[in-house]
Amino acid sequence: MGSASSKATRQFPKTASKPTWAGARTQPPDEAGVPQLKQADQPSAAQRASETRTEAIEQDSRDPHFLAKLNRLGPVKVDHHMRSYQPAADLVQHVYQTRRESELEARTFRPSRNHLLTARLSELLDECKMVKSPQDLESLAQLYDIDVAKLENLRRLVNNPVVDPSTVVKTVGEDGEERVSMKVVWE
């Protein structure tokens, strides 16, 4: 966006100069105090590459930091009480079993034990509010074909609203739609 004359041009050096940081960490062989490897001691590319695992390859593959971390982790702890688990097979078996139970329940006119339709469940919860003794709860469970323990758990966890009959108001809108409003009481 704009002509080339308005852009700054980069200036490159005319001669290649050696950077000041090049070789800053290396020491000359005389000052290091460590004997330098001779050309004969350093393995050449032909000596490093091999079809069999040589000592030079083994030496090159060692990683002291990795080995230290492995040693810090310690040996593997194996739980011998584990069993083989096949989640896909179990899931398919569960699907077939629930489908079979659903089809059997659909053939009968009476729902199976511990299964209630929504309206029946609401009636049951309303009647549970009137229960005074454990014997009343047992008779109610028998009447609705539900286990007493399940009924107690359901009664503890689920509550249904009760409509206050004195608050029911019916209104008809301009379009003829009837609306019913009421107040509910959670007991």
Oligomer: single chain
SSE topology string: HHHHHHHHEEEE
SS-based structural class? mainly alpha
DSSP helical segment count: 8
What is the rounded Rg? 42 Å
Provide the spatial order of strands within the biggest beta sheet.
1-4
Q: Which spans of ≥5 residues are poorly predicted at pLDDT below 50?
A: none
The percent range for strand residues is: 5-15%
What is the number of E strands?
4
Helix content: 40-55%
**What average pLDDT do the residues reach?**
78
Q: Please give the largest β-sheet.
A: 2 strands, antiparallel
What distance separates the N and C termini?
74 Å
The geometry reads as elongated
Structure description:
- It is built from eight helices and four strands.
- The chain is mainly α and 187 residues long.
- The two termini are 74 Å apart.
- The mean pLDDT is 78.
Secondary structure layout plus pairing:
Blueprint: H1 29-32, H2 45-48, H3 55-61, H4 64-73, H5 87-107, H6 118-128, H7 134-143, H8 148-157, E1 161-163, E2 169-172, E3 178-181, E4 184-186
Antiparallel strand pairs: 1-4, 2-3
